Amino acid sequence: MSDDAAACEAHSSCCACLRLANRHALYEEHGYSAAIRSGDLLFVSGQVGSRSDGTPEPDFARQVQLAFENLKATLGAAGCTLDDVVDVTTFHTDPENQFPTIMAVKQTVFREPPYPNWTAIGVNWLAGFDFEIKVIARIPAKA
Fold it and tell me: Which residues of the chain have pLDDT under 70?
């Protein structure tokens, strides 16, 4: 399979998964993809902790958990798991006060070494959200 065909296949399966989760319209509306395959890497767009209607989950701990759940679903649509993640970038509206909650959730997701690279960035706006996570994952050979 060519890289273009594989990218299209990975993109299509991501889109199918997102349609089931009622998230596909968000990507269409704003003109970007949930994830793009390039060779053996999957670049996942920022995932947020939205409720089923697309609005931000008001409880911060739950918002972080939902963001990781959305990430897991997007990775799964391309044949990846959280174990395939090699690089993480997170965005925080109040890093100093949010970090203990984020770290508690992170420790349930990435339980043992090797841990992925991680960059945390403080921002002043996330479209009503308080946490966003984007990753790069290595696609397993079987995917």
Answer: 1-30, 143
**How many Cβ atoms are within 10 Å of 101's Cβ, its own excluded?**
17
Per-residue pLDDT tens over the stretch 8-40: 444 444 444 444 344 566 666 667 788 999 999
Encoded tokens for 53: 């209607």
Q: How far apart are CA 91 and CA 98, in angstroms?
A: 11
Consecutive H or E run containing 138: strand 131-138
What is the spatial distance between Cα 78 and Cα 60, in angstroms, rounded to a whole number? Answer: 28
Q: What is the per-residue pLDDT for 27?
A: 65
Look at residues 89, 93, 88 and name the one whose alpha carbon lies nearest to residue 122: 93
Q: CA-based diameter of the chain, in Å?
A: 47
107-136: string of b/e by CB count within 10 Å (b at 16+)?
eebbeeeeebeeeeeeeeeeeebbbbbbbb
Paired tokens of 105? 């959730």
Distance CA 117, CA 87 (A): 5
Reported pTM: 0.81
Q: How far is CA 31 from the centre of its chain?
A: 17
Q: Can you read off the two tokens belonging to residue 132?
A: 């966003």
